[in-house]
Request: fold
Amino acid sequence: MSSASKLRFDGRVAVVTGAGAGLGREYALLLASRGAKVVVNDLGGSHVGEGASQRAADVVVDEIRKNGGEAVADYNSVIDGAKVIDTAIKAYGRVDILINNAGILRDRSIIKTTEQDWNLVHDVHLKGSFKCTQAAFPHMKKQNFGRIIMTSSNSGIYGNFGQANYSAAKMGQVGLANTVAIEGQKNNVYCNVIIPTAASRMTEGILPDILFNELKPSLIAPVVVYLCHESCTDNGSYIESAAGWATKVHTVRGKGSVLRPSLEDSVTLEYVQNAWNQVTDMSQAKHWNSNAEASASLMEVLEKLKSGDKDAVEDTFSFGNRELILYALGIGASTKNSNDMRFLYENDADFSPIPSFFVMPGLMLTMSSSLVSSALPNSQSDLSNILHGEQYLEILDDLPTGGQLVTKGKVFDVMDKGSGAVVVTDCISYDESGRQLVKNQSAVFVVGAGKFGGKKEPIAGVVPLIAAPSRAPDSSIQYKTDDDQAALYRLSGDLNPLHIDPNFARLSGFKTPILHGLCSLGFSVRAVLSQYANNDSTLFKAVKVRFSGPVLPGQTLKIDMWQQGKRILFRTIVVETGKEVISGAYVDLKEVSKAKL
Ligand code: NAI
Reply:
């Protein structure tokens, strides 16, 4: 790289606190080598904050000067921040960069930490950073340029035995930086946090030897110095760096859960207990850029409560070619059948989703949220006591081959069947532009959750089943499932261990893992599509099934079909046992393919 393209700091004045040793020394050397005039601040005391000496700062100033750079020493404690900054103003007339780096340790377990241990560590790290920053800020604001670094630590972020005082002070720097970043933003005064791990006298004897040798402070200096360059516009970032590696670190917040049914209700301990899994679920955690953004999301929760839509839960579901093809394989589509290529190859001229793929977003929401358990007065539900009872899927618009769907779901009905409860959920999935794409209605049977005095019959709106005619089927198709059918199918998203883990299956009352009900549904929809719609997905409108018995991977499914106009009634039987596994089922088509009329 030519020197012309190197990042320079000519004309800039940098104050580096605690620059007599360790990390601070490296920052000072690098800044000076790139043209900055450097104030090398160091009190020169011991690592536990005792004594003082001018030597530490002087040695580094000499080193800089020997290398042709410009530097002055400052021997004040950072607690006297105004004096430190004054050294810069007196020597160079300005201050552009402040690296708050000075630090000491007074490690003791919480029980043994004295008030002095606490105060001294807080004074040097937190109060010192505050004082120096406060003194530098007006100069930076006036000149419309400033770069400030706070130094935090993994001990603050994750905690570390024996460092209660230090951890608290180090997390304090993060809070301080957050606000300084906001206050400086409009004047081009940016404040970021470094979370270093480096070999220094501070970490000697704490870090293992092998690590110690690899953790040269000089490997972190370029990261910190880059953050101080005018071309770096990060503000409020936390950057962790060690051993020639760096990353941004974020705080995230989970999706959370509403803890009361309506605005009129108070929050009870039991509501909290019920919702706890969702409160602590971080699978949809997100970073918020500002307090305002985080508060806005709280307002949304309040709006939901006000509109009485508190039971509605929401989830996002992303898919593309890969998911569609994996699903098609999971329900037995095969390249051996040329008419299946449209489901298996993204470059096929007719590439399209098998419509039953769209049971997924509804199922994911029903199973992953506390929708089901929130509907049951006395009992918890988990994967080991839930059985999928019925499924209805309706396609409401043209299906895309990829995108992100937002699914909104709620409990639609609850029935008390004695030995268990039936919970019916309704889920609607929308595409990015808010178009309603699919509706799913799932009925799940929660074993052992009955006898709560609820009603037995469904309310209107629970999509009914239709019994198969007594006449011989108009057509039948057989598909042999693979021994690994469930292992393949589960990769589409339903990871319930019941379908792969023998121990879990036994716990749930089965001898071996069983096939997903929705996998048998997929096979059945394929049969109807191939028999009555020439595999044209766009002709598919809806499917309703009842899962009436388990299927084992490897068994053969026989789908018996009866045509009633555009409605194809069907049942699915396991050939090896003669047992019916899907009953009362039908597919509604928009039209029956000409070839079959
Ligand atoms: P170090 O002990 O080598 O350097 C710290 C310097 O600060 C010393 O030269 C010391 O004399 C000076 N100092 C102490 N109190 C002062 C005061 N009141 N006023 C002015 N100067 C004072 O330590 P190291 O490792 O270079 O640490 C630098 C910073 O990085 C510290 O804030 C430390 O907490 C932080 N840090 C270091 C980590 C590491 O792995 N080395 C890990 C996480 C954070």
About this structure: The chain has two domains: 3-249, 311-589. The chain is about 30% helix and 25% strand.
